[in-house]
Structures are given as C-alpha cells and as structure tokens.
Amino acid sequence: MNQNIIEEGKFQYLESKGGEENLLLLHGLFGALSNFEGIINHFSDKYNVIVPLLPILELPIREVSVSALVEHIHEFIEYKGYNKVHLLGNSLGGHIGLLYVLAHSEKVGSVILTGSSGLFESAFGSSFPKRGNYEFIKNKVEATFHDPEIASKELVDEVFDIVNDRNKAIRIVATAKSAVRHNLGDKLHQIKNPTLLIWGKQDIVTPAFVGEKFNELIENSKLFFVDNCGHAPMMEKPEEFNGILENFLEELVSSKVENK
Questions:
Q1: Residue 61 lies inside a defined structural domain of this protein
Q2: Which of 9, 183, 193, 203 is the most exposed place for a label (fewest CB within 10 A)?
Q3: What CATH number is associated with residue 88?
Q4: CA-to-CA separations, 233 to 171, 193, 201, 225, in angstroms, rounded
C-alpha cells in the first residue's frame, strides 16, 4: 500500500485500491496510521483499504464533538462515491462507526468493532493527566496493551506531545466528553448489519464484558476474544486478528456472490 497520505480539500487519507470491496478503518482518540499497519499490509492487495484521518485535533474548538467526526466520515464517503464500505473501528473509531451505521445503514456492508467505546470506557479516569508528566503518560499507554513492550517510545512520544499541546489537549478532552454523552445502549438494537466483534480478553479500557454487551445488543453479531491481548488487538495480535477478520469478510463476500 502506498503510505503517502492523499490530501484532497479537507480530507486526508490512505487508499490501497487493491480490490472492489471497500474496507474503511477508523482510528481512536490517540490513534495513528501506525495502529493499522498490520491490517493495511495484510488486506491492501485484496481489498480497497481506506484510512481517513479523523480531524480530532484540527476541528474548530466550538465544533469538536463525536457528531462532527461522524459528519466528516459521511462527507468523505459521499465525496469518494463509495457505494458500500466494511467499516472497522478501534476504540473511539468504533463509536464513530456505530453512529455512522445508525444514520446510514444502507452504506455499510458490515461493521467490525475492536475495543469500541459507545457503552463503557475507562481511559484517563476522572481527570486529564498533568502536562509534562511523561511517566504517567508512558504508564497509561502501556496499560492499553497486555504486553507493555508494544508501547514503543515513538507511540508514547506521540501521545505525550498531544497532551502537552494545550490546544490539542482541549480537543481531546472535549471529544472524550462528547463520546460519553453519546452512549448507545438504547440504540444498538437498531443495527441489523453483519457485525464482527474482536476483543482483547485482557482489555482494561473497554473490558471483556463490554464486548459481551455489544454482542447481546447487536442482533447480527459474532464475538471473538483474543487471549493475552489488550485494547488494540490489531496491533498486539495482528495475525490472529487478521485471520478472524479475513474469514468474516470472505464469508460475507462469498454469500453476496452466491445471492446474485
């Protein structure tokens, strides 16, 4: 996949153009393209893998909200002219994906959630970390994973730089608070699209019971747990994650061909 970010108007994104089926990836609150490296490398030749950059840190402060990010994705999908997308989201990206499918179910071939917010999330606790506290940030980033070694210095530095930039930190807090206000417990029963849930068994941000609750509330959903894994299975256990996702997508694509 060409790792060069495409810039068109207000949109920034990657696109592999490797197949007819569109697989659109939505990153989390502190997410980056590197979070999806395993998915990008595995699926880019067979699927049109698309990774739009969410303008979490760029929106005007008065517009910062989960709703604005959902609208951004809607405008992006319309701008690109995608007929349908398989929508995969991690953490906040899953939350945005759920809100999108609730509003535009006809545009979504399937939903894939991993460590998604929308029901319950425990991130930075009740207060945002003090600026300049590198060790605190390092511990929090490491806690995202079952294996703290996954939290590279580069990843910790990215998060540290964000929370030490006042304008970025304000937007992160505002987005997180907006997500809490958009609890989806009473709406998930409306989702009928095929849904895949891939959860780290040791996730402490959106614990295993959250995956089970999503599975209970979304009628047409399948839940898979990944052992020895935290909040980002696609990063921590990429081979297992990709295997589960590949089987799910191939089954959907095969059934679509058979029904033609």
A1: yes
A2: 9
A3: 3.40.50.1820
A4: 26, 22, 9, 9
